Prior knowledge:
This protein has 13 helices and 14 strands. It has helices at 30-35, 43-48, 81-88, 106-116, 128-142, 166-179, 219-225, 236-239, 254-265, 279-285, 290-310, 361-369, 382-385; strands spanning 3-9, 68-72, 120-125, 145-149, 154-160, 188-195, 202-203, 208-211, 229-233, 247-249, 271-277, 315-320, 339-344, 351-356. The longest helix has 21 residues, at 290-310.
Amino acid sequence: MKRVFLFVLDSCGIGAMPDAEKFHDAGANTMKRIAASPYFEAEHLCEMGLGNIDGLSFLKQTETPLAAYARLAERSQGKDTTIGHWEIAGVVSPSPMPTYPDGFPPEIIEAFSKVTGRQVLCNRPYSGTDVIRDFGEEHLKTGALIVYTSADSVFQIAAHEKVVPVEQLYDYCQKAREILTGEHAVGRVIARPFVGEPGRFTRTPNRRDFSLRPPKDTMLDALKKAGLDTLCIGKISDIFAGSGVTEKIPTHNNEEGMTAALQVARRDFHGLCFVNLVDFDMLYGHRQDVDGYAGALAAFDRFLPKMVQQMKPDDLLMITADHGCDPGDDSTDHTREYVPLIIYGQHIQSKNLGTRDTFADIAATVTDYLGVPFDGAGQSVLSFITKE
């Protein structure tokens, strides 16, 4: 039985795209930024060909890469998690999702307050750690919910776990998701629970995303309809609103995600294991922690040989990202960047696939390899990289 393991290193971009200035991201380069850190290690990734990808000459290159590799451009008009993953799964978003640089309009906030029975604090773009620092104490006193956004299409709700139990916060998010439709159909409603006392508030691992359902079938839907398995680790199921998912495996961090992937690799299944490793983005990119980001990539690099050891002869390993989040620029927001693609397997030959014009080539390649018809946006690269 053929199996594909697809890892998304959340936000691990590899250099600004030509239109990055339109997104206020000229010069962004997540990979180059972290490569300068003393905590950076990518020995196994570079053996596979990471440093041979277009634009990554600052990394170690090899004359005998173990994998096929490419640089992927994003065709969708955005730089957020939702449309990045949707494009990976074969659906291009030609129009950007709504964003709210001045906060959400009164009709949205009033409707949300009505269904929750709680007032709202903040309602403007804010850093996730700063917003609980600045509004957490008032939230404790009043019970009002902290609602904020960012440069991305998100409606985020922060609440202390002692004031709003986690399951109740999830219910509030679902109510917000039902309100945010039509012109206000944001990509994600995000639960952001926190704990602690004033001056020492910290976010907990109980975050949950409530995403829009993709506008058309993705590779997950195609695989599920064909009777194959789609095992989704981390926030993948949430990003796709559960559409096309046969098994959801929740995790809280990269370590849990990598451990879950190894456990799945020891199972018999036929289809796709789709993994999101969130710490790169959530803990290090948005928090402008270059060394932390570099250390997280080093940890994934050390994990790679363990993953390869678990692979069967017909398994395919794919490694990519969904956008950038340069941890050393002047913003805490995502960045409009190319992403890497590495494809490894016993039947895959080393080949530089150059720069390709959509993340959707991943979905086309996955479904092609698994023998499932799929009318997605990309083109399969399988014929170029399969050994004779």
